[in-house]
Amino acid sequence: MERQCQMKFHKYHALGNDYLVLDPADCPKCPEGIDVVKICHRNFGLGSDGILYGPDKTDKADFKLRILNPDASEAEKSGNGLRIFSRYLYDSGRVKESVPFTVDTLGGVVTCTVLKGGQLVTVDMGTVSFDSEDIPVVGNKREVINESFEILGQNYTYCCATVGNPHCVLPMDKVSKATAMKIGPIIENMTSKFPNRTNVQFLEVIDRNNIKIEIWERGAGYTLASGSSSSAAAAVAHKLGLCDSDITVHMEGGNLSIKIAPDFSIVMTGPVTRVGEYLMDGEVLKQDIPM
Q1: Which of 37, 241, 247, 285 is the most exposed place for a label (fewest CB within 10 A)?
Q2: Residue 3 reports pLDDT greater than 70
Q3: pTM higher than the cut 0.70
Q4: Which 8-state DSSP code applies to residue 117?
Q5: Per-residue burial over 191-204, b = 16 or more CB atoms within 10 Å of its CB, e = otherwise
């Protein structure tokens, strides 16, 4: 892509999970590869948990969104990313408050609604599947529930789910950032089991309506909050009979509300905060950065 001109980004965060929105109207070509890494870098670029490229054209929905991770891989879906993108659409006058609209992602079409002047967004995340072929997980076709693997000499029980992107949920008595940082990257890259890699959630059930999770996000690392991770972890807690259908997910960055229908379709509601508008100079893309 052109490395001389400035690029305009709109930065938002959803419970500390921050994204840069890049509008095709401002930049007709989506960044890729090392350019994405440089833009997202916390020290050498603008710093973010990813880039949201849109709204683009699509025949499937009102808007199309591409979600780029900081390692330049492309995510199928992001709950926080969708809430941020919805807020940007509202701020740029493309959608109205309390009027639902649809967004086309690699993980499927979702319905979003902006509330409270953009401060709150609801996303119909789709239906959670525990099927190994849908997620995907290697092996015979099955629901991946209460299976086990050994990591660094310790056995862990896990469940897997997809809400358009893959998740591995580990129920534990207590969760911690240290555990997520230690074994999250190992599980993410366990490609002999998870051919598309996986997001990882460490799940602690507080009571019938509250869970706590720590998150290791595929392509991004340790993350303060995640909408799709909250959806998957809540669905697993409900599937295991540990929680009811209305669940508040507690994370380092804050809380999300998850409602689970009998068919395991998920409605997620949470806040979005606008950070600012940034003009990034093309010089950022010319530099060499440590990898």
Answers
A1: 241
A2: no
A3: yes
A4: G
A5: eebbeebbbbbbbb
